[in-house]
Amino acid sequence: MQIVPEQRHWTSDGPIYSPVIVYLRDRFAVINVAEIADDAPNLLGRIPFLAMDWVIDEKNEALIGNPEHGGKWMLEEY
């Protein structure tokens, strides 16, 4: 069984779906998901990482907690 989220908007590459909750380690973010080609790899970009207060340490090729917050997760709520 496949559950297909509701399509809300379209880009030139295809639809953007209703928000999903993305979990990474002990953090989460609510992110819109865009459709990609079946043969393309699944990618998680910089914006979801920032939403979860992760920083990409390019020198060490690692994902670290935001040093500005002592490495701890800071969640903004509006």
Describe this structure as you would to a colleague.
A hairpin with a 2-residue loop joins strand 2 and strand 3. The protein has 1 helix and 5 strands. The strands form 2 sheets. A 3-stranded antiparallel β-sheet has the order 1-2-3. It has a two-stranded antiparallel sheet with strand order 4-5. It has 78 residues and is mainly beta. Helix content is 8%, strand content 38%.
| Tally of helical runs | 1
Q: How many domains, in number, for the residues?
A: 1
Mean pLDDT: 78
What's the order of the H and E elements?
Answer: EEEHEE
Strand content: 35-45%
Q: Strand order of the main beta sheet, please?
A: 1-2-3
Number of strands: 5
So what's the overall shape?
A: globular
Distance separating the two termini: 35 Å
SSE class: mainly beta
Quick structural gist:
This protein is mainly beta. 8% of the residues lie in helices and 38% in strands.
Task: Detail the topology: elements first, then pairings.
Layout lengths: L6 E4 L4 E10 L2 E8 L11 H6 L2 E4 L4 E4 L13
Antiparallel strand pairs: 1-2, 2-3, 4-5
Record keyword descriptors for this entry:
78 residues; mainly beta; three-stranded antiparallel beta sheet; two-stranded antiparallel ribbon; 1 helix; 5 strands
